[in-house]
């Protein structure tokens, strides 16, 4: 295999102490890119998400979704021997990832400064809710907490309705995604300098960074953006429109699309109506224009409008359920769902990573491991532990007893 044919992160070793979502999603992306990821889990219960229903056999849907292509080892990190195993693994790792509250890894003896002493090349990733120096630093952080404090929830609803959280766990995922950016940048810099560094990402910081134009609306107007539901705060027509049997998404982000849409509606006169001639006029007269569009579109079916909108080159879409989205032709054509064989639970359907290199996506996924399934193999293959030493650790309650 030539270097170009190998996975981009082939040879990179990641020691992953993270759990739940904000860290595991990041380490799964690194695994998709070819890194060898060793997930360290508590010996008694493992990652908390292993217990979240529904289940396929013994595997939680939540754990399956975030832990493909990783090796699972379970350690008692509160024992001196378990701590030493973790340090031995960190000494051989390129990246260590954790998402505990500030101070937890230091109390365990696995903080950046400690591990750096024996591995100057180590890149240490920390994902927290609020960051080491935040006045909120000790506050428990979950996705919905970050969403609430970011302002995102305040605009995620229909006007006049109660604030709502995003349907996907974007607070957790934003922290994960930005941490991957940081870890890869640090890896690139280490290749030039030979020195690792501490990469810190806060979930709240990440969600605020994703506000995009919403933050700039506030800076420019001195007013917080208000909820507009599926509509756009500064572009009309845009959003979900009722049909005789459902709803259709329309997005007129350019003048050409607006003109195409007016013709599609059979209302070409709207193009020249001074109330709707340009972005600013349409925004000022949003309610009047929306009433005209809704009154017209509700007279015909969703299928009719999807065909007609496409005919007139207007950006459009049906609103799919999660199931319909995963079964649509686009997903099949792009190979976004794959099947992995699990030794005890059979075939698992998994969403595949989206990044392609020269047209090729990630290698076939390895099914998520059972708790501690790879412990013995990792200790033997990576650390050179013998059978007698492994048996001693199992008997001492440091690692799981081999079944």
Automatic annotation (TrEMBL):
What keywords does the record list, in alphabetical order? Transferase
* Molecular function GO labels: CoA-transferase activity
**What's one Pfam family here?**
CoA_transf_3
For this protein, the record's Gene3D superfamilies field holds: Crotonobetainyl-coa:carnitine coa-transferase, domain 1 (3.40.50.10540), formyl-coa transferase, domain 3 (3.30.1540.10)
Q: Which InterPro entries match?
A: CoA-transferase_III_domain, CoA-Trfase_fam_III, CoA-Trfase_III_dom3_sf, CoA-Trfase_III_dom_1_sf
Does this entry carry the keyword Transferase?
A: yes
- PANTHER family according to UniProt: SUCCINATE--HYDROXYMETHYLGLUTARATE COA-TRANSFERASE
Which protein are we looking at? Answer: CaiB/BaiF family protein
């Amino acid at each position: 295999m030539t270097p170009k044919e190998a996975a981009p992160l082939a040879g990179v070793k990641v020691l992953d102490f993270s759990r739940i979502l904000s860290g595991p999603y990041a380490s799964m992306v690194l695994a998709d890119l070819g890194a060898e990821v060793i997930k360290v889990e508590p010996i008694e219960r493992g990652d908390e998400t292993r217990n979240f229903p529904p289940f396929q056999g013994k595997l939680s849907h939540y754990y399956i979704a975030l832990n493909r292509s990783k090796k699972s080892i379970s350690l008692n990190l509160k024992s001196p021997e378990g701590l030493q195993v973790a340090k031995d693994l960190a000494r051989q790792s390129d990246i260590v990832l954790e998402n505990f509250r500030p101070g937890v890894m230091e109390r365990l003896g696995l903080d950046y400064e400690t591990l750096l002493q024996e591995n100057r090349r180590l890149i240490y990733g920390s994902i927290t809710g609020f960051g080491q120096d935040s006045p909120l630093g000790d506050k428990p952080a979950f996705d919905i907490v970050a969403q609430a404090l970011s302002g995102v929830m305040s605009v995620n609803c229909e006007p006049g309705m109660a604030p709502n959280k995003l349907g996907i766990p974007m607070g957790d995922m934003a922290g994960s995604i930005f941490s991957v950016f940081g870890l890869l940048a640090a890896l690139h810099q280490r290749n030039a300098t030979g020195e690792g560094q501490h990469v810190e990402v806060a979930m709240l910081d990440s969600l605020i960074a994703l506000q995009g134009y919403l933050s700039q609306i506030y800076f420019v107007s001195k007013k917080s953006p208000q909820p507009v539901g599926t509509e756009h705060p500064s572009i009309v027509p845009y959003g979900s429109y009722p049909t005789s049997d459902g709803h259709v998404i329309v997005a007129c982000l350019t003048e050409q699309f607006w003109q195409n849409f007016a013709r599609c509606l059979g209302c070409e006169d709207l193009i020249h109506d001074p109330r709707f001639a340009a972005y600013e006029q349409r925004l000022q007269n949003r309610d009047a224009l929306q009433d005209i569009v809704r009154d017209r579109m509700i007279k015909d079916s969703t299928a009719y409008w999807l065909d007609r909108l496409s005919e007139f080159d207007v950006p459009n879409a049906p609103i799919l359920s999660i199931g319909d989205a995963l079964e649509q032709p686009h997903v099949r054509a792009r190979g976004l769902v794959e099947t992995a064989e699990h030794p005890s639970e059979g075939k698992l359907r998994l969403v595949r990573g989206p990044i392609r290199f020269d047209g090729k996506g990630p290698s076939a996924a390895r099914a998520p491991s059972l708790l501690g399934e790879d412990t013995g193999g990792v200790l033997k293959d990576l650390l050179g532990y013998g059978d007698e030493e492994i048996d001693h650790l199992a008997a001492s309650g440091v690692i799981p007893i081999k079944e």
